[in-house]
Amino acid sequence: MQSDYPLFPLPTTLLPYGKMPLQIFEQRYLKLVKQCMREGSTFGVIQLVKGSEVMKDGRRVPPIVAERGTVAQIVDWDQLPNGLLGITLQGQNTFTASNLRVAEDGLVLCDAEFESELTPSPLLDTWEGLAEVLESLETHPHVERLQLNVDYRDAWQVGYHLLQLLPLDESLKLSLLAPDSLERLMTTLDQELTQLSGE
After folding, report:
1. What does the alpha-carbon distance between residue 1 and residue 91 come to, in Å, rounded to a whole number?
2. DSSP calls for 47-107
3. How far apart are CA 155 and CA 183, in angstroms?
4. Which region among 5-14, 77-86, 97-106 has the lowest average model confidence (pLDDT)?
5. What is the rounded distance in angstroms from the CA atom of residue 158 to the CA atom of residue 17?
6. Among 9, 26, 94, 97, which has the minimal tally of Cβ within 10 Å of its Cβ?
7. CB atoms within 10 A of CB 51
8. With contact defined as beta carbons under 8 Å apart, do 148 and 121 qualify?
């Protein structure tokens, strides 16, 4: 358990192994990013369920967020043409968040219980089609910029990279953010891709 673990609530879900570009403009997050880059530390990306923090009885009340999030490592950064700081996050292991509170600078903090990193699992023959879809997506210009580094022998990496990239409902992505559901992850991806190709 780690107390005072910083959170970055977002309407989107960061998945283990997945990469996500972000624009940073709020002072509290600029400060967090600088600290993480200086110290090599991480923060948690967690799905925002409702609203942002509000004032109640003269103090800030944290937003409503999902129970589980993903540890985020900053793997790249750049100044964007609009002058804002752009960073690329890579998802690591998952965690559960409790006892949310808001720091003086507005940063949302939690007590984080970290789950183990995923153990590599072989890509079964029945999942080869998912790997082929991911390989084809890697040639897309937007995806090329993310510079994915996928171990195609590991089903977890194939599944979560693909889930990160596909335009699927965020509630579905959140429901698959569990470290013991490889079969469910791959089966759901197969079903969703069948639906997408049929539209």
Report:
1. 19
2. EEEE---EEETTEEEPPEEEEEEEEEEEEEEEE-TTS-EEEEEEEEEEEEEEEEEE-TTS-
3. 10
4. 77-86
5. 9
6. 26
7. 10
8. no
d(CA 66, CA 174): 8
Across 58-67, 119-128, 163-172, least confident range: 58-67
* Residues counted in the chain: 199
Kind of pairing between the strands at 2-10 and 64-79: unpaired
State CA 136 to chain mean position distance.
22
* Consecutive H or E run containing 44: strand 43-50
Question: Residue 122 carries which DSSP code?
Answer: B
At 127 the three-state DSSP class reads helix
Can you give the pLDDT at residue 172?
Answer: 95
Provide the mean pLDDT of the chain. Answer: 91
**Structure confidence by residue, pLDDT tens digits, 69-92:** 999 999 999 988 888 889 999 999
Other CB atoms closer than 10 Å to residue 94's CB: what's the count?
Answer: 22
pTM: 0.90
What are 97's strand-pairing partners?
A: 112
Report the CATH fold assignment for 2-114: 2.30.130
How do strand 108-114 and strand 54-56 relate by DSSP bridges? unpaired
